[in-house]
């Protein structure tokens, strides 16, 4: 997006999609659908929507059909361009296609490698010309992101593993990739997947397709969290929507047992609210695991530019720097460090061009840098 046009976009340049979520209704199903739609228009300040989805089927199919009929009516009134569904399995989608007067234009589902990327639903969508939107692509596929193949493809293309995964599902599986990030830098990186003319080679696609994901979100993991911070810590589970859900407090050297699932993410905050540690449960490490809460961060710096750079660690007082390494083009160096530590990349002239402050990360953080830009993987 052109920054000079900020605030000047026309409505037609935006795609706005929202959902109706079934719940315990105090009114009729049809009235609830209509009220939800009107509320969306009001809250968003628009006169129409591009897409309106049924968030999930009702327990009673009769209610699901009533909701769909009201959505069809809203579509006929010209208030929404497309209607669709979310969290429908292949049998439910077959049923709706048989009953619908207006066929769904969009299906939005959780998409996991362990479940063959929701292949049955995707194939049915392709057969009927339905756009398939995939969500939880990053959170639910951590093993794909951390897999050696994905990491190597990312290095080859000078992209992040997240960008590679998004590009793979778009290019190879015909999935519209949804991103729920609130981080502006990550938003920009996600958009680059389309705007930067990124294209995976046939070999890269074949390599990505060959990755086997042995576990998914349905696999249980029992984690014993141990607090090694030396101060009280509060543990949070990060929900699918990004909400930090409190899981308990740990005194110094204290422990907390949590039953969770594969790929679930946790963070730990200190008493002042600062996030100092992150963790992702990975079933491949065993059904029972120990996770030590500390400030350690593992990082890798990769020079993707044509010139050599010198890497320095800046002392906490901010006055002195310690030389770490010289990185020639395409060279890399790995370091174990701590949250809050600062690293600086300097030209041969001594000019500082890149500077990074270490943040909590559940996986190894990779910084690619060169003359033009710096990317965090």
The total number of structural domains is 3
Give the strand order, joined by hyphens, for the main sheet: 1-2-3-4-5-6
Distance between the termini: 22 Å
CATH homologous superfamily caption of the largest domain? NADP-dependent oxidoreductase domain
CATH architectural designation of the largest domain? Alpha-Beta Barrel
The gross shape turns out to be: globular
Q: What is the H-and-E element order?
A: EHEHEHEHEHHHEHHEEEEEEEEEEEEEEE
User: Treating each run of at least 4 consecutive H or I residues as one helix, how many helices?
Assistant: 9
What is the level 1 CATH name of the largest domain?
A: Alpha Beta
| CATH fold name of the largest domain | TIM Barrel
The number of E-state strands comes to: 21
GO molecular function: oxidoreductase activity
Organism: Noctiluca scintillans
Domain NADP-dependent oxidoreductase: 10-211
Pfam family, one: Aldo_ket_red
